[in-house]
């Protein structure tokens, strides 16, 4: 799907003339947004635990957008609680895809978290998280991470599959109720858009470097049993490996922007690591490959729980600090330490 040195396990791109000049409103027919379902390719591949490996890639790619980076730098306390923020954020992110009849409500909630994120950055540029181009860029990174993760873990997609996933990402995005003029018209146009963003729009900024700085990363929740002194001793090696995995997912223009060197040997080894992870993940029973919110979507579709069952939420251990739980920018549901599908809390 890409040449050996093109960057990111995705996707040879056509040349770009001037995609930024494409400002016409989408000509796609307008109809009521319809949530994706179990017949979609997105459901098959999105929402898995292996996607956690793309956290630094997604966070850094989003933050390199000038408006997003400024919003994170001036409005976010993400770095005070990295693991908790990541774990709880996955619930509404996955919910827009997997919540079935509740998906439009989830999408409206996600959009609402961005209402107050606006201002002027250090270069005097106005930013607004609900600017259509800014909001779509965040969505584009989720979609593109899905594409490159499939190819990294599982092998090449067919052109037909790429077109289907692209159309599904448009259907998914429509749930947010945002203007559609920022969305490319086709998979091929998306590749031009992505290339243009990587080469001409993204910036190396503090918010990006903060995401990539894992030097003080605490133990993840599933390793709380691991002795902290031993964690601190082994962390530098683990951080180096994780950063290397992330750099391998970037497109070459992004590596150049951030000053990372990448060799043909790195490329070959990176591909082997991705396939090994994919093969290892295939040994996990299918049901347990999915995040709880995604798993509940499959359960709803299969009739294991009622179609109208309440969505499940993050457990209390992932909630923001008490003094931030009423902030409109936080997903902070009223939950207990339990989270079971079909149970209202």
UniProtKB/TrEMBL annotation:
Stretches for region Disordered: 1-35, 316-345
Membrane-traversing stretches: none
GO terms, molecular function: oxidoreductase activity
Domain of life: Bacteria
Domain ER-bound oxygenase mpaB/mpaB'/Rubber oxygenase catalytic, chain residue ranges per copy: 43-277
Ranges of compositional bias, category Basic and acidic residues: 15-27
InterPro entries: MPAB/Lcp_cat_dom
Any Pfam family hit: MPAB_Lcp_cat
Protein name, entry field: Uncharacterized protein conserved in bacteria
Organism: Rhodococcus coprophilus
